[in-house]
């Protein structure tokens, strides 16, 4: 059961990442990876919410389902470290050093900020 | 083509994402970490995924006419789904919340540094290997 939930969430998360990345990247005429940044921030905020729900509201039965489907599956797959890493190295190798550093700083700071906001919001909603 | 996406590309991304996510989930079960401890599985998965994506993208760039669905399936799907940013963030927050600030910082910074190095190594090694094999073909 858990395996099926992870597969399902993982498939949905990857498609969501692909679609959002394309949509965002098309609206920015720049080499800066806004699309990957967007999915990583959104997914981190969402996982903050999911984690808060698991902590304060989840009963053991539904917790396992939500963890597998939404946590490990959807949020895990919707966000990516490999594309973030590759984009950063590609920017650096292309002499866009400032963009490479900005990508790391923005992704990490905004990712942690979004996760924190998700945790606080979720605790306020369900706590 | 404005917002239309080919269904076969989306299917390749979905299938790859499902498989990559399951592999990441399995790695997490195989290498569990205590609450607030260093999330070895996420760290290892992210570094390996970065190494593989660096290699894949370098190989694709040097291949004439690669299979159309290879990048959506392997790059976007499998490796995108295998690596994760959200779990990395929540792992670090969890360590900090449980009073392991040192682990949180080492993990947060170490993941980024190790992953960037892994991408560069994957690119460099693949580049060198392809150049060697091309030179062999010529001589």
Task: Determine the strand fraction of chain B and express it as a percent band.
Answer: under 5%
Q: Tell me how many strands of chain B there are.
A: 0
Task: Report the portion of residues of chain A in β strands.
Answer: under 5%
Which radius of gyration of chain A do the C-alpha atoms yield?
A: 16 Å
Low-confidence stretches of chain B: none
Helical stretch tally of chain A: 5
Secondary structure tally: strands of chain A = 0
Shape of chain A: globular
Describe the protein's architecture and organization.
- Chain B: Belongs to the fluoride channel Fluc/FEX (TC 1.A.43) family.
- Chain B: It is found in: Cell membrane.
- Chain B: Na(+) binds at residues 80, 83.
- Chain B: This is Fluoride-specific ion channel FluC.
- Chain B: It catalyses: fluoride(in) = fluoride(out).
- The complex is a heterodimer of chains A (127) and B (139).
- With 127 residues, chain A is mainly α.
- In chain A, 86% of the residues lie in helices and 0% in strands.
- Chain A has five helices and no strands.
- The model of chain A has no long low-confidence stretch (mean pLDDT 96).
- Helices cover 78% and strands 0% of the residues of chain B.
- Chain B is mainly alpha-helical and 139 residues long.
- Chain B has one domain.
- The longest helix of chain B has 38 residues, at 101-138.
- Chain B has helices spanning 7-30, 40-61, 70-82, 86-97, 101-138.
- At the A-B interface, helix 1, helix 2, helix 3, helix 4 and helix 5 of A face helix 1, helix 2, helix 3, helix 4 and helix 5 of B.
Which helices and strands occur, and which strands form pairs?
The complex is a heterodimer of chains A (127) and B (139).
Chain A: H1 2-26, H2 34-56, H3 60-78, H4 82-93, H5 97-126
Chain B: H1 7-30, H2 40-61, H3 70-82, H4 86-97, H5 101-138
Membrane topology (chain A): Multi-pass membrane protein
Binding site for Na(+) (chain A): 76, 79
Pfam families (chain A): CRCB (PF02537)
């Amino acid at each position: 059961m858990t395996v099926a939930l992870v597969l399902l969430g993982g498939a949905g998360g990857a498609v969501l990442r692909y679609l959002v990345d394309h949509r965002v990247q098309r609206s920015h005429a720049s080499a800066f990876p806004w699309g990957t940044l967007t999915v990583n921030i959104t997914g981190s905020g969402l996982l903050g919410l999911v984690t808060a729900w698991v902590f304060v509201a989840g009963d053991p039965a539904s917790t396992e389902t939500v963890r597998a489907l939404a946590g490990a599956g959807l949020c895990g797959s919707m966000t990516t470290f490999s594309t973030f890493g590759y984009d950063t190295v590609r920017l650096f190798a292309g002499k866009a050093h400032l963009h490479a550093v900005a990508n790391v700083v923005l992704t990490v700071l905004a990712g942690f900020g979004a996760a924190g906001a998700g945790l606080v919001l979720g605790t306020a909603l369900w706590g | 083509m404005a917002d239309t996406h080919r269904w076969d590309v989306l299917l390749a991304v979905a299938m790859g994402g499902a498989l990559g996510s399951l592999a990441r989930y399995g790695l997490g079960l195989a290498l569990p970490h205590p609450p607030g401890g260093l999330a070895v599985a996420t760290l290892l998965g992210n570094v390996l995924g970065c190494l593989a994506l660096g290699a894949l993208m370098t190989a694709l760039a040097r291949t004439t006419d690669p299979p159309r669905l290879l990048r959506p399936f392997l790059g976007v799907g499998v490796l995108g789904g295998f690596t994760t940013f959200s779990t990395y963030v929540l792992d670090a927050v969890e360590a900090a919340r449980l009073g392991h600030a040192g682990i949180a910082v080492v993990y947060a910074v170490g993941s980024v540094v190790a992953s960037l190095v892994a991408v560069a190594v994957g690119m460099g090694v693949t580049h060198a290997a392809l150049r060697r094999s091309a030179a062999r073909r010529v001589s």
